[in-house]
Amino acid sequence: MMIGLSMQTTVVKGIKVLEALALASQPMSLGDIAEICDMTKSNAHRLLHTFVACGYVNHNPVTRHYQATLRMWEMGSRVHERMDMRVIAAPHLAWLATTTEETVHLAVLDKLDALYLDKVDGIHAVRAYVNVGDRSPSYASASGKAMLAYQPAEIVEQVAQTIVRHTEKTVRSPEELREHLEKIRSTGFSITTGEWRPGVMAVSRAIRGDTGRVLAAIGVAAPIDQTQRATLERMSESVKIAATRIETDLGFSSRIATTRPISELKRKRKA
Questions:
Q1: What is the mean pLDDT of each run of 10 residues along the chain (271 residues)?
Q2: DSSP readout, 211-239?
Q3: Cβ contacts of 45 within 8 Å, gap of 6 or more
Q4: Domains of the chain
Q5: pTM over 0.70
Q6: Distance separating alpha carbons of residues 238 and 104, to the nearest angstrom
């Protein structure tokens, strides 16, 4: 949701300050906060004074820097506990299944595997099958690779050491896996053709939070021989729409874009 100038109220400015502090990798000065949030120092100082009094921000009187407290994490954790990814994703899975007429699924990364939390079967007599509770190796499945692409390098290396060829199209080596993951990061999609199960293609997209952390993946699977290029393109676009809608319902994609990295800010000052 875009917020226009007319809505730049004290509340919105306060949210900007809290987000800037939450996303910062280090304590911030008043000047940095004011510049990143595009407000005057006096406005930033008044808001920070309130947040310190409410326990959301700490102020170091020696360095004169500000830092978010765990109060925001505490509040976020309580909200998170009430959220069920399956419940939130369910209407979007149903929409995706209706739109593509193929089997769709929701998965999370569990250890080194993709674990399927929910699914909706396709309407065709010949269709791909997946059961809730099934697992697939993350290096060979579309949903697995969609999530693996955004994991730390050490996790990718752990997965790479477990590669076993399930079909002739399964990735052959850690190097090939890294190439696949790089392409996924570039395109935003994971597409597999018979890497886990012969004759089955799938397209998937990761569902991610504001910081880029992977929460789950949503995907479509279909028989290869009845999936044409134009169909694959439509599937990819539908998967993108469904993933974005889930992120919005989780409160992520509509987040107010307010901050720039501190390193960028300092480079600008030196220029």
A1: 54 91 92 93 94 94 94 74 79 95 92 91 78 90 96 94 92 94 94 89 91 90 78 89 92 50 47 48
A2: TS-EEEEEEEEEEGGG--HHHHHHHHHHH
A3: 30
A4: 5-77+261-270 (1.10.10.10), 84-249 (3.30.450.40)
A5: no
A6: 11
d(CA 18, CA 103): 41
Q: How far is residue 64 from each of residues 28, 67, 110, 225, measured CA to CA in Å? A: 9, 10, 42, 65
Distance between CA 161 and CA 184 in Å, rounded?
A: 20
Radius of gyration in angstroms for the set of CA atoms belonging to the chain, rounded to a whole number:
22
Of 217, 112, 231, 123, residue with least CA distance to 161: 112
Tokens 């407000």, located at residue: 39
Q: CB within 8 A of 108, min separation 6: which ones?
A: 85, 114, 115, 117, 147, 215, 216, 217
d(CA 243, CA 105): 12
Q: What are phi and psi of 40, to 5 degrees?
A: -75, 160
